[in-house]
Amino acid sequence: MQDIHDGVRVLQPESVSFSRSRGGVLEGVLHGKSYKELVVYRTFPFRYPSRYLSIRTPEGEELGIIDDIAELDGESRQELSLELEFRYFLPRVERVERVDFQSDLWIWELQTHLGPTRLVMRNLHEHLQYAGGNRIVLTDQSGKRCEIPDWRRLDAHSRRQLSELL
Amino acid sequence: MTMQEQLPERLRNQLLGRQLLFSYRTDLLADGRFGSQWIAVTDQDVFVWKEEGTPVYRLSVSELKDARAAGAVGGGMLIADTHAGPVVLVRYTAALTSVFNYMAKLIRALAKSEEPPAISERDCPRYCPDCGLPLPESTQVCQLCANNGKLAVRMLRYAKPYRLRMVIAAVLLILTTVLELIPPYLTKVMIDDVLQSEGRETLLLAVVAGLGATMLMMAIMQAVRGYIGAWVGSKLMGDIRRDIYNSLMKLSLAFFDRRQTSQFISRVNNDAESMRQFMTDGVIYVCGETLRIVAIFAILLSMDWQLALLALLPMPIMLVASMKIWPKIGRRLYQQWRSIFRLNTLVGDSLQGIRVIKAFGREGEETSRYGIANAEVIRNNVKTEGMWQFIFPAFGFIAGLSTLLIWYAGGAKVLGAELQLGTLIAMIAYLGMLFGPLQWFSQMISWAGNAMAAAHRVFEIMDTPPDVPDAAQPVSPGLIKGEVRFAGVTYGYEKHHPVLKNVDLHVKPGEMIGLVGHSGAGKSTFINLLCRFYDTDEGAIHIDGVSIRDIAQSELRSQIGVVLQETFLFDGSIADNIAYSKPDATPEEIMRAAKVANAHDFIVKMPDGYDTRVGERGHKLSGGEKQRVAIARAIIHDPRILILDEATASVDTETERQIQEAIARLIRGRTTFAIAHRLSTLRGADRLVVLDQGKIVEVGTHEELLEQKGGVYRKLVDAQKELSQIRGVES
User: Fold this and answer.
1) pLDDT tier, B278 (very low <50, low <70, confident <90, very high otherwise)
2) Which residues pair with B38 in a beta bridge?
3) B139-304+441-467 CATH, one of 3.50.50.60, 1.20.1250.20, 1.20.1560.10, 3.40.50.1100
4) Contact A105/B331, CB-based, under 8 Å?
5) Is the pLDDT score of A145 beyond 60?
6) Mutual orientation of helices B653-667 and B623-637 as an angle, nearest 10°?
């Protein structure tokens, strides 16, 4: 049985700090208590990607909620943002090179802000998620994901590739 | 070792002669960008290098406390816990999660000086060795690289039994193609030689008669060929379907565990259909049209080669256009299908949730949601339908252009008396016949592609070897007494994650064993191994002293009866369902079994009695009734070893009493293994076996176990008491 908390504990920005350990993991001090390893979860990954962040121990116990990453000090903000990028691996698509349909598979050649990649999908209706507005989340057969923040703002070539698919 | 990516030589040299246990290439860099690093685990160290060979980490096993794969969204990281704190070794995308889960276990085992876990096939993502694309979940063959030639040959092997008829159809096809070419030629003869001169009435009659005869012959041959085609097609499809189904039935349970079963329904039907389409319509159509095109070319060239070449000018345009357009059409159609699919999902959703919608008063919002999706469908419909309306006239126009060319150039020749009028008319007629098939040219390519993809999926099922093979020379134990012995049994659905660990148990003939434990403790796995749905990884199970691997599966299961948690009744009468394992059972036997199962009375009270149709589309039996039918089914099977997996469905007290009574009669004289969620069911058990995390932790009678304060069983009983669901254990 897990303990049931009465409420959500909101961490005060001034008594919270995050840094990166020598081993490359996120560590921090929360309300005077130091933690060798911390994990950060987005509670609203789509609507509020940099707000309402749940800070937890590696075992999954919630230590508290950061209301807004912008309220933290410089280093904490930077390390927490980096950790979010790591944990929510969602490369932003900058250009759609090609979308091929070969033998029942859709093959996407993409340029993302983290480098070029390729996604393979069996169909589109289960692997394209319209996350509101012009935002699209692409999920690969293997679970790899990429995001198009706003497909109307991509370059003309990419839009042409997409126009038949969306 | 074939599953690991080969560690490059330059890195192998840096291992200092250590024994390499496992190595892999990541798909992310330390800063989270796409790229690759290498990680290698030896018996003494863990190495991480950049792609070009610069060392990043080298950790000695003695520094390590533990290792874990911290999964995140869309990727993860491999963390080593050293004495100096956690270290992120590598990062990877979700595609490699299973590999690094395994690697974490391997490093942990080294750090704790345990036996390193075995790697199983499913730990490594499977890539096509040729093109590097990941292989889809349920298949071993890469769709892009498979050898289509071999496949086609294998597919055509299905046509072998019908080759005589196929040959007849082919001959008829050639004949009709040739015959089709005759009428334009006769037209030419008519215009040039008959109509333009006097006194040729007899010849006119002959030519018209010739035309009539050709038409009649063509009609007859088309009908016969069509009939043969339909006949062979149906037979072929029947054969393919039968083979797929047979293969499915032969496969082990593990095959189905890993896959969604619903996909097979479409495989059996759709894939057989696309293969048939290719073999009958496809092959015939392609051959026929190719033949026709070649023949028309030859005739046109022989009539007037200059005009012929002129007429063919627009042809490359059409070919290219058709190759370009078909893929687009395919995408448009898919787009349309997707919008309809969304609309249907929406309707399905809101109708299922209609109570919630009404309760919250959200009808208006649902209507507007539907409106948006509906508008989308309309938009796509207009686009797709509109496209068709453009394509055909466009093709017609291009084809018309070449007719225009011929009319102009040929007309000039006729005026200059270089060409006869009939020849010109005939050439124009042939041209019309030529452009028809060209429009569909690339459509044929996509048909063939679909058929190949279907053939892949079908042959893949047929080629999968069963995981649980029968012994080459099975031992027949005869009528077994029912002594069961588990000796050091270990099993995991994934090899490195055992669900049962080193289980030893000796059960005397006729004994009733109750299996108790939290969900996930390994109870169902225990039963699955006894039925030999899976083979043990380590250890063995003996029945009457014979290892169950040596007993033929059909014989083993004829002596094991199961009453499963999910009582599944097949479509058919109640009598059929009771007599499932013994189709020749007499009505008396069926009634006796039902009587013992406390089912006779409720069955007889139904208007259709034992002939009541149950199953998917039949009479709906209640949970308690279904269970009693299943018990009757087990009774008529008369197994020596009985397995009861009790339903969690709650039934009223009276029904439960009747079921308990039936079970009590059923287990008499049989070795019984019972899984019960309500511990009250296990009152009659001789011994209770308590499983916890795959191990046997307690064995004893209900009373003995209850006395162990702090024991697992005692805790379970207390928990159930609290939920006040424990009715009658104490009585």
Assistant:
1) confident
2) B25, B49
3) 1.20.1560.10
4) no
5) yes
6) 10
